[in-house]
Write a structure and sequence with these properties.
Number of helices: 3
CATH architecture of one domain: 3-Layer(aba) Sandwich
Structural class: mainly alpha
CATH class of one domain: Alpha Beta
Helix content: 25-40%
Number of strands: 2
CATH topology of one domain: His-Me finger endonuclease fold
Strand order of the largest sheet: 1-2
Strand content: 5-15%
Shape: elongated
Distance between the termini: 63 Å
Order of helices and strands: HEEHH
Length: about 130
Amino acid sequence: MIRRKKTKIDPEKLAAIAARARGYQENRSKGYREKALALFPHVCARCGKEFEGAAMRELTVHHKDHNHDNNPPDGSNWELLCLYCHDDEHQDAVERESSGNTGLGTTEVTLGHNAFEGLKGLLGDKAEE
């Protein structure tokens, strides 16, 4: 058994590291959040709730592949989810991982509602662009 020497962690250094990490994450998320809000209707893709005004802060960007560094300009790795559906999606992912089920080869479980159903028909020729 290897014993490691305990080193005392400087609380100020630790706080500075945490602050830099939070700042980096906030800056990164602002960029893709703004793009996602410009690309997609302000509707939760899971439950269909619409958002506007101050409630927009409750609409989050979910990375479908769970990789926050995968941000293609067309938004193909994003979907807008309300806080509750986003938390539920991540909880489902944790449960799949803990059970050894990666979700590969399985059918996606939905609430039986597609918030964007019929959108292509409404957009007409614009949907082809």
